[in-house]
């Protein structure tokens, strides 16, 4: 469903009297990469913390481009036990999916670390075409990100 309606703006975000900011140049970067998907359980641990947090921290420490963690609502794995997100469910071990995209060399270099961390799970590697949209911040002021 698509809804279209008239809208009256009571207070514009930027008045015409203020200095208008010029947006940074838009960039589109295309290329080949590798997609790594890691399927684990929410209850899996690494050094007393959730395994997915350990993997994310390890990927970041090894300068991997990025990772996103998804919490599943329903699934099953090799043991065929249903895992779902419900208050009365017998299993509270919801499925977790980590999705990582980077160069194959970086992902292959991280595999020995995964071998030590993951006791039960599944890792899937796929070739992907990447289209990355970004801004060119070279000529504009950009707030520096603070890395902990």
Describe this structure in words.
With 148 residues, the chain is of the alpha+beta class. The protein has a domain at 35-135: Alpha-Beta Plaits, CATH 3.30.70. Helices cover 17% and strands 37% of the residues. The chain is built from 2 helices and 8 strands, in the order E-E-E-H-E-E-E-E-H-E. The chain has helices at residues 51-61, 104-117; strands at 25-41, 45-46, 49-50, 67-71, 74-76, 82-84, 95-102, 122-136. Strands 4-7-1-8 form a 4-stranded antiparallel beta sheet. Strand 5 and strand 6 (82-84) form a beta hairpin. Helix 1 runs antiparallel to helix 2 (104-117). It is globular, with a radius of gyration of 21 Å. The two termini are 43 Å apart.
The rounded Rg comes to 21 Å
CATH topology of the domain at 35-135: Alpha-Beta Plaits
> Order of helices and strands, N to C?
EEEHEEEEHE
Mean of pLDDT? 80
Structural class: alpha+beta
Q: Strand content of the residues, in percent?
A: 35-45%
Largest sheet: 4 strands, antiparallel
Total beta strands: 8
How would you describe the oligomerization state of the chains in this entry? single chain
> What is the top-level CATH class of the domain at 35-135?
Alpha Beta
Number of helices: 2
Query: Which outline best applies?
Result: globular
| Low-confidence runs | none
């Amino acid at each position: 469903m698509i809804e279209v309606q008239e809208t009256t703006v009571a207070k514009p975000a930027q008045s015409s009297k203020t200095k208008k900011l010029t947006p940074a140049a838009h960039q589109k970067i295309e290329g080949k990469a590798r997609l790594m998907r890691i399927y684990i359980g929410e209850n899996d641990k690494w050094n007393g913390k959730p395994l997915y947090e350990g993997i994310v921290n390890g990927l970041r420490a090894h300068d991997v481009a990025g990772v996103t963690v998804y919490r599943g609502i329903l699934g099953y794995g090799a043991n065929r036990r249903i895992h779902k997100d419900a208050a009365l469910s017998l299993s509270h071990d919801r499925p977790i999916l980590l999705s990582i995209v980077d160069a194959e060399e970086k992902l292959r270099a991280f595999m020995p670390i995964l071998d030590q961390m993951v006791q039960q799970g599944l890792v899937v590697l796929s070739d992907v075409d990447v289209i990355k949209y970004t801004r060119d911040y070279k000529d504009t002021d950009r707030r520096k990100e603070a890395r902990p």
